[in-house]
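chain below, 167 aa
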Amino acid sequence: MKAEKHTFLVKMLCLFLLASSSSGAQAANHSPFVAHYTTASLSAQEQTAGNLLNSDRAAYGLPALTLDPELCRIARIKSEDMRDNQYFAHTSPTYGNVRDMLDHFSYRYSAAGENIAHHATVAKSQAALLSSPGHRRNILSSAYTKVGIGVALDRNGYVYLTQIFCR
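prediction:
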């Protein structure tokens, strides 16, 4: 219960800081999840998912993961692949497992992991991932330094969320 209260307070503080600094360009430049208005920009939901992920890491005294635009593109493709091909699994019929997919897109890495979720919101997705021991290990691992976050919505508005972790 104490850890849950701490996590809640950290999330609320992060959300407050994000909201209060969103109008200041200097403060926004320090956030690894600031949307850049280009074709490679994060969607608002991907930005929220990244903030939640790093908030959970901070609650456990871990450094934030760097958001990698190319990993985000690949994670988004994975989420879209699950939606478009109507499956929910770590192994894609199109791209194989996460390492196969990274190799397919010529992404260089020395360690890789993947979390996937399908829920009503990115907040519910992150909560579900953190409550699952295997997914939690990826979120809280010190082996990873970068993350890609990809979100796709199904026809009912539910979120397919992919987190790709790399070193």
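The chain is about 50% helix and 15% strand. Residues 2-21 form the longest helix (20 residues).
thats it, cya
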